[in-house]
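Your task
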Amino acid sequence: MQPSNALNYDYSVAKYFMFTTIIFGIVGMGIGTLIAFQMAYPDLNYLAGEYGTFSRLRPLHTNGVVYGFMLSGIFATWYYIGQRVLKVSMSESKFLMFIGKLHFWLYVLVIALAVVSLFAGLSTSKEYAELEWPIDLLVVVVWVLWGISIFGLIGIRREKTLYISLWYYIATFLGVAMLYLFNNMEVPTRLVSGMGSWLHSVSMYAGSNDALVQWWWGHNAVAFVFTVAIIAQIYYFLPKESGQPIFSYKLSLFSFWGLMFVYLWAGGHHLIYSTVPDWMQTMGSIFSIVLILPSWGSAINMLLTMKGEWGQLRENPLIKFMVLASTFYMFSTLEGPILSIKSVNALAHFTDWIPGHVHDGTLGWVGFMTMAALYHMTPRVFKRELYSKSLMEAQFWIQTTGIVLYFASMWIAGITQGMMWRATDEYGNLAYSFIDTVTVLIPYYWIRAIGGLLYLVGFFMFTYNILKSISSSKPIDREPVSASPMAA
């Protein structure tokens, strides 16, 4: 591998997105922790009036984490990785620098508008697609700007071979672009009736068709934001940090094409036992089971990259974060297909097992990988040593404990819910009322809230470590070198 520090890379846009990753992480996870405590102690819903209720805050939590924290992390790592693997600096093109900075500031504007509109109750009520049409148009512009940055940098590259991480970034851009456009086709109600608000709209689809298109998007938001773009990161940062080459480049390509062909059609498993055609439900289940192959192909490839170098887990907290992230990815991509089996889905759907599944992937896979990426980037972007390795260790164990408490409590709560909802007496009547189920779940909600709080505490530790690294650590003249000469 050619030394990456042979060029003077321009990380100004990457720095901007690193800071928004931290800010939106605090906001999104802070709101998430609050609404977890609202589930455990409902009186918290009334402390701040209508604007502090679970129903008003929950879309802010999901959008803040997915489109604030996660996307900022994806953009930050792109503006770092893209230059290094293509062997070209953004400063070599004034046009690309302008596009990068415009991308950042327009992105911040969109997030600000999203916060204001969701707080005001303006929502399409679609999962992961709550924003109304004027903001959707701005989202499209932001996405196009990122695409110009990707393909513009590729167009002026010195390195002719496109490293596998770039394949995943390109797939993220193209996949989200296609799906977002189709799912967000909507008509302002004022255009339809001449009445109402310009800020309100109705979907161009109706009934079951609307549900199908929504979950074609909804599940693939998980595919191309939670998954594909994060794989792009670990395929770069794990070899760099460990000094080990990827175990199998062929396996990375097999997994890539498998994900592209299979993941797109798994969204139907969100609509099992609904009014959509049964063959579509079955197709969603089948594709979900097949999805284990490319998902585990990627995860195993990541873990086998550490073959013969497992001793680094004792010395390097970043390796801990990335290895456990890969493990959570394996775990989550096995759990999801299991939940899509019709007989299991009959028990689990609409229960707390589902948010448990989402969060073991989001907190363990996406969260750990994003924080590890920023830890790796900080000394190379800001030319300063990381502030505290022991603080990283403590953060790792606190957050791991939080994740385990979170998903374990939600598994138990979900299975308990499903069993109680299905239970009948000797006359065939339901054995439990809805409130009976809620009462039983309160202890598990407290455990979940405490787990979320531990993860938030760990994120504050991460934030402190990064900010102290930037402001107070010893300056360095050369980039840190990992355990092997390969990482130069």
Observations:
- DSSP finds 16 helices and two strands in the chain.
- The chain has three domains: 10-161, 178-188+206-343, 350-477.
